[in-house]
Amino acid sequence: MEKRVVTLTEYEIYMGASVGTLRTLASLKRGETNKVQNRDFGWHSDIESACSEIAFAKYSGIYWGGSVNTFKAPDVGLAQVRHTQHKTGRLIIRHNDSPTDYYVLVIGTHPDYTVHGYILGSEGMKDEYLDNPIKTEKGEAFFVPQRALLDIDDLVKLLKQETSSNWRYAGQEKK
C-alpha cells in the first residue's frame, strides 16, 4: 500500500496549533487529563492531532471544521483521525469508540504527515489487537498495526459520497 505524505503550510500549522491549544484548554477546564494518562503528553499532543486532521482533510479534499468539545463526532467528513508521531505506530481504537466509524491513521509531526490507511471500527476491535503498551489503568485499547489497514483512497471515495449526501457540522446529529 502506497503511503501518502502531506506537507502543511505555515497557515495550516497555525490553524492546527490554535485548535489544539483550545482543545487542551477545554480539557484543563473540565479537569481532564489525556485518555491514556501518559505523562509525556503535553500541549503538543492536541496540536499535532489537530494538524494530522488537517493533513487528512487536505489529502482527501474534505472540509475540516476544527471543532472543539465535539468528542465522538467525526473529525473529517465521517472519519475519525488518529495520530501518532512514531513511524511504526499503530492506530488506536478505544473500548468506547464506535464500531461503525472509520478510523484513519496519520503519522508525523509538523509540517510533514503521512496518511497510512484506515479500518472500520468493528474490524479494529479484535482481541488480537488488544494491548496496554504504557501499562496504565486506562491504557488498554485496540492497537491496529499498519499492515492491517486498508487503502486510504478507497475510504476517501466513500467519504466523499457519504459526506455530500449526509453533510453536517461536527457535533450535529446525523439526519
What can you tell me about this protein's structure?
With 175 residues, the chain is of the alpha+beta class. It has a single domain, classed as ECO RV Endonuclease, Chain A, CATH 3.40.600. 33% of the residues lie in helices and 21% in strands. The chain contains 4 helices and 7 strands. It has helices at 10-30, 43-60, 121-124, 152-165; strands spanning 4-7, 79-84, 91-93, 102-109, 112-120, 130-131, 141-144. It has a 4-stranded mixed sheet. The longest helix is centred in the N-terminal third of the chain and has 21 residues, at 10-30. It is globular and about 40 Å long. The termini are far apart.
Key descriptive features of the protein:
175 residues, alpha+beta, ECO RV Endonuclease, Chain A, four-stranded mixed β-sheet, three-stranded antiparallel β-sheet, 4 helices, globular
Query: Helical proportion?
Result: 25-40%
Largest sheet, described in full?
4 strands, mixed
Low-confidence stretches: none
What is the succession of H and E elements? EHHEEEEHEEH
Based on CA inertia axes, which overall geometry fits? globular
What is the CATH topology descriptor?
A: ECO RV Endonuclease, Chain A
Say how many strands there are.
7
With strands numbered from the N-terminus, the spatial order across the biggest sheet is 1-5-4-2
Task: Put the structure in a nutshell.
With 175 residues, this protein is of the alpha+beta class. It contains four helices and seven strands, in the order E-H-H-E-E-E-E-H-E-E-H.
How is the secondary structure organized here?
Blueprint: E1 4-7, H1 10-30, H2 43-60, E2 79-84, E3 91-93, E4 102-109, E5 112-120, H3 121-124, E6 130-131, E7 141-144, H4 152-165
Parallel strand pairs: 2-4
Antiparallel strand pairs: 1-5, 3-7, 4-5, 6-7
